[in-house]
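fwd from M.: "can u put these together and see what the complex looks like"

so here's what she sent:
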Amino acid sequence: MRYLPHTPEDMAAMLQVVGVESMDDLFSTVPDECRRRSAPDLPEPLTEWELDDHMATLSGKSTTHGHDDGAPMVFIGAGRYEHFIPESINYLLGRSEFTTAYTPYQPEMSQGTLQAIYEYQTLTARLLGLEVANASLYDGASALAEALLMAMRITRKKKVALSGVIHPHYRQVVQTYLDPAGLEIVLLPCLENGRTDISGLQDVEDLAAVAVQSPNFFGCIEDLAALGNMCRENDVLFITAFTEPLAYGILKNPGLQGAHIVCGEGQSLGIPRWFGGPGLGMFACKRQYMRNMPGRLVGQTLDKQGRRGFVLTLATREQHIRREKATSNICTNSSLCALSAAMYMASLGRTGIRELARLNYDKAAYLRESLRQAGFRIRFDTPCFNEFVVEFPPDFELTYNRLLKKNMVAGLPLSTWYPELKHHYLLCVTETRSRADMDAFVKEVLS
Amino acid sequence: MKEMNELDVPDDLYYTEDHEWVRMKGENVTIGVSDYAQDQLGDIVFVEMPNSGDQFKKGDEFGTVESVKAVAELYMPIGGEVIQTNQALEDAPELLNQSPYADGWIIEIKPEDVSQLETILDKHAYLKMLKGS
């Protein structure tokens, strides 16, 4: 690609102004022997990752995609994922137009912001496979709580079933939202294969919705199509949550599998881990339920002169109009994070997201197999995306601490949230881990 | 906004303090919102209606009317079972503005006890209430 800003028309116009016929005429004062006739001998262009590696090598550090020797090699995901973020996003986000303490929504003033949100909504709806997405909520956990409240508004029922393999923090937030309002949560246990056990649902009456996460907290991919069918047969709303939206780059999206509401955390889409926040609550639903949806919504319309424009729409759901009967007491969105996600999705495109998802999947499979061959038990055989659960020997804590001193974090110990899973660790591998990283890790675990 | 003397308040209807009207239609009754209510709300953009077969008690919320600037809840003037809803409102909610007492009806119900109407307002009492407000 050539980075010359002038078109042939621009150049012709400029040549005409200075009064010469062609570029050769323009440079005629430069002696012939000083002029270059062939293209300079430069290497082929590099991708951003290759260039990063190249520059890091030049600066004397051996790295993988910005992974300094001194920086820890973290094999934890569990809701926050280490992904490569294109430099273009940081650059664009740093533009002064986006530097504002409060998202401006006034259409006369804020067409840029509103269009950006509209594009975020469009990309989100496509990624999740549903018809309508809102301008975003605070984070994945509150988005799930809002989805459950929404289901109870639609069905006028006061009970929901929640998979026990939804992220434990999400379940805590849901409880905080639902308990004081006297709304009942039925907790669904986990099967031996790491998926949600729905057999107990037969006996539960008056259920508003069933909520599962996929890939779930153990990294296992739930059988959403089967769950979707079950929900349809029982006339119950089907909510699916996620912590890793990148998975939908290769997995069938939840909308196609019968989900009525899809919600989760968008941090993976170009947002740093930032010690746990701020996040991006992504939220989408079927069109028939949009009037019950929480959060802000930007729509596309025409102005008086017939030009395309963007405005907040369906605002009558919100509390400045509907007061205590609003669909949510949250009237804002995570605009800057949503903007990052929109830029990220647009930068990668459909193909890029698919390739990146595939890379995550393959790398996680590589580490899983390496650990299996090294003699460790992979707890669940169910297909996974970029996370999986390993059972290490009882004395693994010593190894874990030894690895920490070597700047390696050997996954998340699960017994804090699942006491029955003693010595089980949740490991995550994204595109930021090289094969050399993983080989070194397995070697260290074994030594 | 309309002046008091411009308001259309038909003689043959019953009214509630929340501005719903009720019309006897054989054994059933139809329910809508008054000229005063549609005028106060402004351009109506959406009417949320219950499903046929839903049961409500007098005073229950059975739907909402949404205008460009406000949302109003609809309350049952009389208890009963919903027989049908005005499907035309789904595509043309503006009928509520244009014809609040005819084309803009909202639901038809089979009342559980017609005598409940005795406790709500007639035209005279409704007008008196409006003038007082």
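replying to her w this: Chain A touches chain B at residues 291, 316, 321-322, 325 (CB under 8 Å).
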